[in-house]
Amino acid sequence: MATTPKLPIATISGSFTEWASKKVEVVEYIGKRILTEGGKMLIIGEKKFGKSRIMIQTAIELALGLPWLGSVLVPEPRRVLMFSMEGSEAEHVERLQNYEKCYGNLPDKDMAKLIVLPWMPLVEAQGAELFEREVASFQPEVVLLDPWYSINIGDENNAALVTNTLRVVDLASWKYHFSPVIAMHTKKATFDARGNPVDYGFDSVSGSYRFTAWATTTALCVRKAGQRSLRFLLRAGKDLEPAALEEVDENQEDGGLKRFKLLVGAENNRAQDIIKILHSLKRARVTELMARLKLSKQSVYNALEPLQVQGLVVREPGPNKKFWYWRLV
User: Fold this and answer.
1) Can you name the residues that pair with 326 across neighbouring β-strands?
2) 117 lies in a domain?
3) In the predicted model, what is the mean pLDDT of the chain?
4) What's the number of domains the chain is made of?
5) What angle do CA 245, 250, 255 make, to 5 degrees?
6) Burial category of 149 from C-beta neighbours within 10 Å (exposed 0-12, middle 13-18, buried 19 and up)
7) Mind listing the pLDDT tens digit for each residue in 16-72?
8) By residue range, what is the domain housing residue 57?
9) 199 and 318 together in one domain
10) Is 145 helix (H, G, I), strand (E, B) or coil?
């Protein structure tokens, strides 16, 4: 029976006062809260939703420093390593050729690496050694694993196996300082031969709280009446409202591959300009936004409102409580 490969566990220790006196800077990878340094993300959805396309877009946009899914700010390019275990070599070649047309160019070899393989069971020595070897060699800031069932070979309803697979990812991310992103299918509660629930930690999101408790952000893919959307569940803080996900057809011919675009604050360049300004200034009054954007007060409020609904910005009083400011959440 496979056992969990052993990776060294580094520790950081200190007194409570020493911990309280530390100054920690939150390094943002995607937006303010979607993915940060040390964060862990799940992309969960039904078959044929387009999760693998979201994953490879994530890899490309992070490595190029482009807005994630065409909308959410990526402050700077990040080194990305992607393990893709669905699809043939030819399918990956065709997909990347299409994306090169979409973006105009692809990340260079120093910023992104794609490894295509049939499976990589992390609870077996061969899979764990391959995973650690590639991570140690490339030193990525973000590692994408697509899909879950190819790194968790065996009974997906086995709680110990699931926990051990996630443990390998955790130990490697701690040792090599990367943020993991895993794509997986939506799961449902399962029952044994007698009809009793399997001890799997069922929840209505991922099929198991073992996943949603592990992730700092869960991007739940929802399809309703033919419309796609993403719902962001955050371990800390208020969940974000669902955002529509549409396909864009830029620079495509003959039905080629389309990109996904997340409609944050509607299809609205003004909203994206506001996000960039608030990221730069940390906070701003409406009058400052009016001056920078050369817009009327009502136009600025019209652009802020959907961002507020999406949970991306908040309005709060200043130090003297005389003026109100807007800032990113």
Assistant:
1) 284, 315
2) yes
3) 81
4) 2
5) 90
6) middle
7) 888 888 887 778 888 877 898 889 999 988 888 889 999 999 999 999 999 898 888
8) 27-264
9) no
10) strand
